[in-house]
Write a structure and sequence with these properties.
11 strands, about 120 residues, about 50% strand, seven-stranded mixed β-sheet, mainly beta
Amino acid sequence: VQLQASGGGLVQVGDSVRLSCAASGRTSSSFVVGWFRRAPGKEREFVAVISSSGGATSYTDSVKGRFTISRDNAKNTVYLQMNSLRPEDTAVYYCAGSTRGWLKYSASNMYDYWGQGTQVTVSS
């Protein structure tokens, strides 16, 4: 399975960006997909997750109400819509796939597949 993250860039505070995570090699509907990020000088952190069917989602507190994760299984793609961006959202964003179901989804070691990351920079 290969995951390809895209959609990052340089934006202003308050702007919106939509990240995409396209899966190939296996139907994405067979696994949970999470988004993680790593800010400069910080550990990688969990951002959001969506179940294989899309019926369940979860977010880290700092992005609740601003970010929305969704998926289109017909296109084997998961999205992360990021609104009201803040400087502290600046990071490399990674998508990851897990075949272990809805289990400890915020732990990066539960994921089997990782995309290459896409940079999001929020400028003030």
